[in-house]
Amino acid sequence: MSLAVLIPVSIALGLVGLAAFFWALRGGQFDDPDGAAWRVITPQDPPKEEGNGHVRLASDTHHPDARSGL
């Protein structure tokens, strides 16, 4: 009895998913997936660099105090 209900329900849900896919395909959802991703990542106005450009991010390992904290 339960398979008589579950099989048609699963087929109906599969058809609904397929219809949604074709609807999105006709609506242009998949036209340019890479272009939209790159437009999000690349800023239009790059941020201005602040501070000193010569400052090193890593600690100076040659300084005697740098190794004492390890």
Automatic annotation (TrEMBL):
Residues 42-70 are annotated as: Disordered. Residues 46-70 have a biased composition (Basic and acidic residues). InterPro entries: Cyt_oxidase_maturation_cbb3 (IPR004714). The keyword Transmembrane helix applies. The keyword Transmembrane applies. It comes from the Bacteria. Keywords: Membrane, Transmembrane, Transmembrane helix. The chain crosses the membrane at residues 6-25. This is Cbb3-type cytochrome oxidase assembly protein CcoS. It comes from Paracoccus marinaquae. The gene is ccoS.
